Amino acid sequence: MIDLNDVEKIRQIDTMNSLITTENYDVQFGESLDLGKNFEVANPGRKFHEIIILGTGGGSSVAGGLLRSYLFDELEIPVIVNQGYNVPAFADSDSLIFVVSHSGNTEETLAAYEQAIKKGAFMIAITSGGKLAEMCRNDGIPTLIVPYDIGHPRRDIGYIFIPMLVILSKLGLIQDKEEEIRGLIQLLSTLKKRYGAETPVEQNPAKQIAMDLYGYIPLVYGSLEYYDSVAWRIKNQFGENSKLMAFYNVIPCLHHDEAVGWDMPQELIKNFYLMMLRDDLLDSPKIKKRKDITLDILRTRMGKVREIFAEGENRLCRMFSLVYLGDFITLYAPIYRGVDPTPVDVINLFKKKMAQQ
Ligand SMILES: O=P(O)(O)OC[C@H]1O[C@H](O)[C@H](O)[C@@H](O)[C@@H]1O
């Protein structure tokens, strides 16, 4: 196992600097705010039936999910995250469609884009370039171009999420969020000191959890209304960053189905490492009670259980405080095993095989 206090070794294993990029989210989120603010939108005040986000993967679709959760009690129209090749039948000229592909080359998103164009939807693209940027240029679709980095959209979550938020406020669909975003940037710069590579294991909860879960299957339980997509993000990050299959579910829903599976044989359930996402401010009394009961039951059944708590002055901060901790945990987990967190070999294999005739 790698000594997570050995910063030089950590940097050697993390050959594409995913930790450094994550440590610099405060800068990324700041730039993203400016990108959003400088983007001109047409027809502010126009009414839409719904918002559809076309995009897939740990960056683009998760950003859509986080947006949906964050705006749950503010937006008066639904947000639909659409990850596949097709767009739903109800999409039409009254739909606001964000086409989001960081690379601009993801085949599902490009196929869905072509359908959306035919339906005459009001579209805005967010991409660093690729085929999507080219198609949008030809079709006259307003496009917000974000920095390219190295082609791992999951570490560009700020560039995808923040501009969508700013654009929604420019369109008059939500209140202005600049103050909340600035609060988040401040929080990220505080938290990076706690979770960053330079902070030793003894003072670094992200490193501690990454080491603690070694040998277990991660299971992330979030909750409605704000922590479903956060749990989804962390589960995805375990896959892409940690090279670990992980699972997630959402309270209270899981109490009506998955929970029955907790009666599985002890030798199976003991392989899980439960991370329970908690928020002392945003979790309602009912949700808090359900989480307490869940922990009471699972403490003696699962291999280990760990509660992680949201923090921060507003909802955006609180949600992203857990996204941020999750990003660090899922980066340290592979490094602890001597594995480089950035390459995604299986995804590349899929892309190659799908391109073959
Ligand atoms: O945002 P896009 O460039 O369309 O990428 C979509 C997805 O592609 C790949 O699968 C990446 O590994 C994911 O992290 C990414 O989210």
From TrEMBL:
<dbReference type="Pfam" id="PF01380">
    <property type="entry name" value="SIS"/>
</dbReference>
<comment type="similarity">
    <text>Belongs to the PGI/PMI family.</text>
</comment>
<dbReference type="Pfam" id="PF10432">
    <property type="entry name" value="bact-PGI_C"/>
</dbReference>
<dbReference type="GO" id="GO:0097367">
    <property type="term" value="F:carbohydrate derivative binding"/>
</dbReference>
<dbReference type="GO" id="GO:0004476">
    <property type="term" value="F:mannose-6-phosphate isomerase activity"/>
</dbReference>
<dbReference type="InterPro" id="IPR019490">
    <property type="entry name" value="Glu6P/Mann6P_isomerase_C"/>
</dbReference>
<dbReference type="GO" id="GO:1901135">
    <property type="term" value="P:carbohydrate derivative metabolic process"/>
</dbReference>
<dbReference type="InterPro" id="IPR035484">
    <property type="entry name" value="SIS_PGI/PMI_1"/>
</dbReference>
<feature type="domain" description="SIS">
    <location>
        <begin position="41"/>
        <end position="184"/>
    </location>
</feature>
<dbReference type="InterPro" id="IPR046348">
    <property type="entry name" value="SIS_dom_sf"/>
</dbReference>
<dbReference type="GO" id="GO:0004347">
    <property type="term" value="F:glucose-6-phosphate isomerase activity"/>
</dbReference>
<keyword id="KW-0413">Isomerase</keyword>
<protein>
    <submittedName>
        <fullName>Bifunctional phosphoglucose/phosphomannose isomerase</fullName>
    </submittedName>
</protein>
<dbReference type="InterPro" id="IPR001347">
    <property type="entry name" value="SIS_dom"/>
</dbReference>
<dbReference type="GO" id="GO:0005975">
    <property type="term" value="P:carbohydrate metabolic process"/>
</dbReference>
